[in-house]
Design brief:
- By secondary structure, the protein is an alpha/beta fold.
- It has one domain: P-loop containing nucleotide triphosphate hydrolases (Rossmann fold).
- It has eight helices and ten strands.
- Strands 1, 2, 3, 4, 5, 6, 7, 8, 9 and 10 form a ten-stranded mixed sheet that branches.
- A hairpin with a 5-residue loop joins strand 8 and strand 9.
- The protein starts with a strand and ends in a 24-residue tail after the last strand.
- The relative contact order is 0.19.
- It comes from Halomicrobium mukohataei (strain ATCC 700874 / DSM 12286 / JCM 9738 / NCIMB 13541) (Haloarcula mukohataei).
- InterPro entries: HerA-like, P-loop_NTPase.
Length: 266
């Protein structure tokens, strides 16, 4: 299966995606995470995967070297070295890694974080990345494409996904997912609330009448404690998912970023 995992920044993508990785890891012979923002170390600390920071040495590796490494380390989080690898170079390295992964004859789960950087719409899609999305399923490969900018990811990736997990979106990113969902797209716009009569029963919130659109849940101190998503797939399954109900053994270590506080205007 190819799964598109999409929501705006701060919606809890990496937390939710990590839960998917953990729950599916043992069903595969290998799990490889292309970790752009260093958000999946929880899988390492729980012992579900090993860890490698991809920097100046690793960026020089060829396909054969990556193939050997990935065969020896089937469960691995490959973290981008932020100081040494910019976005363009990370895409080049991921292309080489993808070539190596395609040569390995095994059932494997590959997760690409910030996938719009690996497969950007405005640049030619690297053939190895395209093959992961278009032919990987038949070769025993499943993929998770995690992005906050579906408007910027190559459409080949989106069209080859058989399942969708979508949180809150707006603007051009909301427009980008419309062709792939068969229910009111405004369920993903937290600023609107489609009439309940237009929403399939299985996608209505079970704990309230409105808003019908997805929302984040906060505790009394204003801390986010969960978020709502809509799952759909090519088999016709649709359901509303609340990450307050997600449990996993690994701890999530991703950062949601620091707040900005206004100065005093006295």
């Amino acid at each position: 299966m190819n799964l598109a995992f999409i929501a705006q920044s701060g919606w809890g993508k990496s937390y939710h995606a990590q839960a998917w990785m953990e729950s599916n890891a043992m069903a595969y012979e290998a799990v490889v995470v292309l970790d752009y923002c260093a958000e999946y170390r929880g899988l390492v600390k729980e012992g579900l995967a090993r860890h490698l920071i991809v920097g100046r040495v690793e960026e020089q590796w060829g396909v054969q070297q990556w193939q050997t490494f990935l065969r020896q380390n089937p469960y691995i989080v490959l973290e981008r070295h932020k100081q040494h690898l910019g976005t363009d170079r990370w895409r080049d390295v991921c292309t080489t890694i993808s070539k190596a992964l395609r040569r390995l004859d095994r059932d494997q789960l590959i997760a690409a974080d910030e996938a719009h950087f690996i497969a950007p719409q405005k640049q030619k899609l690297p053939q190895a990345i395209k093959e992961l999305a278009t032919t990987g399923r038949g070769a025993g490969t499943s993929t998770i494409w995690i992005t906050q900018r579906p408007a910027e990811i190559d459409k080949t990736i989106l069209t080859q996904c058989q399942a969708w997990m979508v949180g809150a979106l707006d603007g051009s990113d909301l427009d980008a997912v419309k062709p792939y969902i068969e229910y009111p797209e405004n369920l993903h716009n937290k600023g609107t609330s489609p009439p309940a009569s237009t929403v399939p029963d299985e996608l209505l919130p079970p704990d309230r009448e409105r808003p019908t659109s997805v929302r984040k849940h906060e505790d009394d101190e204003g801390n986010t404690i969960g978020s709502e998503w809509i799952y759909s797939d090519d088999d016709g399954e649709k359901k509303r998912v609340n990450t307050q109900n997600v449990t996993m053994a690994s701890t999530h270590h991703g950062s949601e970023g620091n707040d900005l506080n206004p100065p005093s205007y006295s």
